[in-house]
Write a structure and sequence with these properties.
Layout: H1 2-21, E1 26-27, E2 37-39, E3 51-54, E4 59-62, E5 75-79, E6 85-98, E7 108-116, E8 125-132, E9 149-152, E10 156-160, E11 176-178, E12 193-200, E13 204-209, E14 212-223, E15 229-231, E16 236-241, E17 244-255
Antiparallel strand pairs: 1-17, 2-5, 3-4, 4-17, 5-16, 6-12, 6-17, 7-8, 7-16, 8-9, 9-11, 10-14, 12-13, 13-14, 14-15
Length: 259
């Protein structure tokens, strides 16, 4: 059994390495440790907050081993590096458990980019490509659908292409969200979904779910102390743990040259 497990892990490691290096991508997760990432709620070297590594799955695992329905804290895992122009890819799947205070909510998580400011804050200032398993319809009852845009910070702005509105569906430029241009299709719980963001500094970002472009935003900017706005060109990358058990794997990035 041990020999077979080692064989499986070795094959998975080779697959991850080959996949990550394809087309110029490099891994941001080695499948064994959280090296290169720091959790906002980590209290020391032996505590990684809500995050741990599932070596059998070669994945980052939120709330691993926590009792279903137990009270937990949300958390954010932030990359040590900062990035401005790049293509970032990962896979995610919902594992099952939900935790108080959201035991009866739709499952919720997110991929953050242009993360800046206080990195120990939950949530840090950032732009979010939502991860969520709410039904794929376009009603106001929908809470968390993969591919939505959330803007985490009242001093941040982004324009949603095609509508020309800011990120709130009513068009009001305040901290909030937007429905995607197209509703992508999330795979059934327990299956791996592919996520991709293409980020071009402050100019543009494209959200892709399972191969389908679901949203494009432009003119990403932040407000300064004097009230003026400047382009938000770069930041860290973050992964959310938001009271639902989820795994992330095949985390990789391809940095793009400046224009």
């Amino acid at each position: 059994m041990k020999i077979r497990l080692n064989t499986i892990l070795a094959a998975a490691a080779i697959a991850v390495s080959t996949f990550a290096n394809d087309e110029g991508f490099v891994p941001l997760f080695d499948g064994k440790t959280l090296t290169g990432w720091t959790a906002a709620r980590a209290s020391g070297p032996d505590d990684s907050g809500a995050f741990s590594v599932n070596e059998a799955e070669q994945a980052i695992h939120t709330y691993a081993g926590r009792e279903a329905g137990s009270k937990q804290q949300n958390d954010c895992l932030v990359s040590d590096g900062e990035y401005g122009r790049y293509i970032f890819k990962l896979e995610y799947k919902w594992v099952g458990n939900r935790y108080a205070p959201r035991t009866d909510w739709d499952r919720d998580a997110g991929l953050l980019f242009h993360v800046h400011g206080d990195l120990q804050k939950v949530w840090p200032l950032s732009i979010e490509m939502q991860i969520g398993e709410s039904p794929g319809d376009d009603t106001k009852k929908r809470r968390f659908h993969s591919g939505d845009l959330f803007v985490l910070g009242k001093n941040l702005r982004a324009t949603v292409c095609k509508t020309g509105k800011y990120y709130d569906p009513e068009g009001e430029p305040v901290e909030g969200r937007s429905v995607p241009t197209r509703l992508g299709t999330e795979k059934p719980r327990g299956e791996w979904n592919e996520m991709e963001i293409q980020v071009y500094g402050a100019e543009k970002a494209v959200f892709i779910l399972n191969g389908e472009t679901v949203l494009e935003i432009t003119d990403i900017k932040q407000q300064t102390d004097d009230g003026s706005f400047i382009p938000l060109e770069k930041g860290h990358i973050g992964l959310q743990a938001e009271w639902a058990e989820i795994m992330y794997r095949n985390i990789r990035i391809k940095e793009l040259p400046a224009d």
